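Continuing the series of single-chain predictions for the mutant panel. This is the parent chain; the variants come on the following pages.
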Amino acid sequence: RSSPDVFESRMEKRSEVKRQPVGYSKQGEFIKCMEEKARSIFIAEGVGTKTSKGGFTKDKTLDSILNVEMVKEKSAEEIKQIWNQYFSAKDTVYAVIPAEKFDVIWKRAQKCPSFLYALPRKEGYEFFVGQWSGTELHFTSLINIQTQGETAPSQLVLYHYPELQEEKGIILMTAEMDSKFLVVHEAQCLANQVQLFYATDRSETYELVETFNHRPNEFKYMSVIAELEQSGLGREVRPAQVPDKS
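Parent structure:
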């Protein structure tokens, strides 16, 4: 009663809040705005890209995915968040690799461009050969190589983009895979093994890579499985065993 103007102003604000839809919040609007900005940084899929015989993108560049000029103003942490947020909604493998770690991987890849990786299956393991071609890493199952030779198609390709390495200290990575042979968590297991074997500090682990490339007669398949089991990377891939009720 003492201040009618103030009372009317408060009632108007209350009615405005009531008119907002259920679940509305300024924070929600802010997040939505940020997501839209992040999407605007990425290029529409398929624009300016060429596919190879196996259906994978040929000569895939970072410019075909991301508006590089737009992200140059952002920090490495901001770019990492944008990259992870964008690809988390997609059925694929992706990563942001620190430049120092990729330096180690890259130097070793020049000396040892191929390696044999083990993928846990319901019974035993399936082996895949990973072959570096520039900054692309192509995976093909060993059985396909044995039956088809050099014409065996890739079943997974990891694309590493060094464009922001010097300025931001990060390498962006994404992938394409043949869904007839692999699902995402299996592809992720193979991608994780690249860091396990190529970025390791353990000389015994990297020695397996050197042996495979330079002393193949001494290479032992079981050593790869032993390293994988010790690292724990294969636990999430192997299907749970159904107990025998007999």
